[in-house]
């Protein structure tokens, strides 16, 4: 009996039929997302589910527009009927993704089930970067104009800050505290809404469309510094949903004042804005020294979680004038010096290569996973 059999059978005595069906659907969807093509027989072998159970779940997913038949499996013997291959259907269901983590603008997109933008819009913000809920409602309303409401799987909203369910508990960037954004948008449009932290959103995009495995740490450099951690394919959110707020760890109590109320927080020293300000009047050598110091400081701050969790992969995203070879080489040198040992596999720090729309795509992926997991 496979591990899938044990999980399903053990839970069957306590779970309702709808719970079991939802679990089975989640298992099958994860085996196809984002780009795997498998037959019903393949899915049965990989999950341990019966042919009838797989057929029932797949039939529902075909009707919903989650998957489609995209061809036929190879038949080496040339005998018998070839099984139809299933894959994620990117033609029918749509997701609206809104990114509130960017400076000076709100970005929005209609995406397919892989988070690939089909249509994009932006709303420019004023110099104070203030975001009103009405602006979000307006953008969603514009994006859904040409969509059939029955084909909208949900709305994903990406926020820089602490998120718990549909509540933005704290966002120093937006100046928000305990804003129930999810409920507000859900009432307005009557579709499911998922609010997700920007670092987690970007991490999900790297996980499924980049070079990451099941365990890694992801850090975004922008107005702030945000970190997300994936362990066994599970994002770590923490007891108070504030895991990853490394930018607001004070590393110099006499340092610059931070909007969070403390002094010397990491993001006051190595955020994109802070570094560009320090480099503004420097020559090439001076700018390189600033970036080199930022890379070393970042690695020093990350050494504890890397050692504690035994993480071998650290991925960093940010603009190329900041997250460049000078930054990465300095960070790698520092990592090697402070974490290297005979029992710790070398931690490699690398730049995210996925490209644009990291957070927008991650917002869409969060909606998909929320829907599939019920």
Automatic annotation (TrEMBL):
<dbReference type="InterPro" id="IPR036388">
    <property type="entry name" value="WH-like_DNA-bd_sf"/>
</dbReference>
<dbReference type="InterPro" id="IPR000600">
    <property type="entry name" value="ROK"/>
</dbReference>
<dbReference type="InterPro" id="IPR036390">
    <property type="entry name" value="WH_DNA-bd_sf"/>
</dbReference>
<dbReference type="Pfam" id="PF00480">
    <property type="entry name" value="ROK"/>
</dbReference>
<dbReference type="InterPro" id="IPR043129">
    <property type="entry name" value="ATPase_NBD"/>
</dbReference>
<protein>
    <submittedName>
        <fullName>NagC family transcriptional regulator</fullName>
    </submittedName>
</protein>
<comment type="similarity">
    <text>Belongs to the ROK (NagC/XylR) family.</text>
</comment>
